[in-house]
């Protein structure tokens, strides 16, 4: 840092900048593509508040949504095993409610 610091002196701003750069680099290197999608849609602050489990589950749901043709199609893919145990099958509504927990909707995900 001393080599790149202005005037060869390390200031608090230089240290803070380097810490921010390193954290961003570490996050990018450790994150999977799905986790990056979570960051993009929720923002880094909201995304950081999620438990690791919730983040992984949401990343999977978002991946399926982006590959599906419609909300109903994504719902069928995501809830295929449990839909047979339901009295009324409305996979799109289940998915819509799940996404709403994160303030997300179909248009925001697929745009």
Report on this model:
This protein has seven helices and no strands. The protein has one domain (11-110). With 111 residues, the protein is mainly alpha-helical.
Structural category is: mainly alpha
**Average pLDDT metric:** 85
* SSE pattern: HHHHHHH
Q: What is the number of helices? A: 7
Find the count of extended strands (DSSP E, 2+ residues): 0
Low-confidence stretches: none
Instruction: Kindly report how far apart the N and C termini lie.
Output: 41 Å
Structurally, the number of domains stands at: 1
What's the alpha carbon Rg, rounded to whole Å? Answer: 20 Å
Overview features:
111 residues, 0% strand
Question: Nutshell version of this structure?
Answer:
The protein has helices at residues 12-30, 33-42, 44-48, 52-67, 71-78, 91-100, 106-110.
Tell me the layout of helices and strands.
Elements: H1 12-30, H2 33-42, H3 44-48, H4 52-67, H5 71-78, H6 91-100, H7 106-110
Helix pairs in contact: 2-4, 4-5, 5-6
